Description:
Largest sheet: 8 strands, parallel, barrel
Oligomer: single chain
Helix content: 40-55%
Distance between the termini: 48 Å
Amino acid sequence: xxxxxxxxxxxxxxxxxxxxxxxxxxxxxxxxxxxxxxxxxxxxxxxxxxxxxxxxxxxxxxxxxxxxxxxxxxxxxxxxxxxxxxxxxxxxxxxxxxxxxxxxxxxxxxxxxxxxxxxxxxxxxxxxxxxxxxxxxxxxxxxxxxxxxxxxxxxxxxxxxxxxxxxxxxxxxxxxxxxxxxxxxxxxxxxxxxxxxxxxxxxxxxxxxxxxxxxxxxxxxxxxxxxxxxxxxxxxxxxxxxxxxxxxxxxxxxxxxxxxxxxxxxxxxxxxxxxxxxxxxxxxxxxxxxxxxxxxxxxxxxxxxxxxxxxxxxxxxxxxxxxxxxxxxxxxxxxxxxxxxxxxxxxxxxxxxxxxxxxxxxxxxxxxxxxxxxxxx
Length: 377
């Protein structure tokens, strides 16, 4: 029975350098790590049925607090049985706190110690999002992994501003912890992750990690990256940031990324990822393959009978030609978005499975080298 499963239990089964593979056991199922979480922003992974998302190999998906609080509303989702019932996804769901989306609304928001007052991008209505309200929304949604509410400044902001933001986020982390713990049955069945901030500054990252460790969380996210700083700068932070976080908890790099980002981050000790890239790219005709990205809108595919990726066993690659996918994309047919999205999510899960197997077999360096040679050319 589900009630006999652990609330949250992370086990590292094998390591290879800093890379590690393991399992997060939760009441709604196990999550194999390294894990990639497809993004289901508005209670749907765009262009995919839930059963198709699961068939790609996904163990967990991400839902978005900001978008769901605005439409259809967290209270409505709760009345309809919670997010899992609402969208028919039976496995774990991680919900982000809304902090990143609010950051992107900088011209529509007012930031205070209490929280963030903002205007909806949908209808201009005013809302207040605080650590306590973020925890309440995620509780109403029925989230399995809840994210602490934080502020995420861009890496190019002045250092003093980044420092003040990090300190605010750590105060909000403690308020998130307290509000989550007051959540009764939901708190007894769910997990809470803290989010390390500090942009590209090692000292701020260390202070943030220390504050989070003192509060205590089930898992720890590395926030404030993939916001325009570039891969080299991101990897520079990942050379040390994961090591600042507890070894016995999962490390989650938020909002990342391209396939080569994932390999590089796993090399540096990251366990969990999410990104809109495979689904957004699928809708725009960009496919990820073992030989690198493919733009299916390109005219050179118009009469190409070959599969999208001969090494991929997904339904798109085993059933349709590049010529047909090119036609669908050029015609604006919905099926084109569906088929390429399904392939991209399948490819991402194949990549994660390949990394898990390589780490377990002690061959991760060779796997990463071959991946880069093939993918990056």
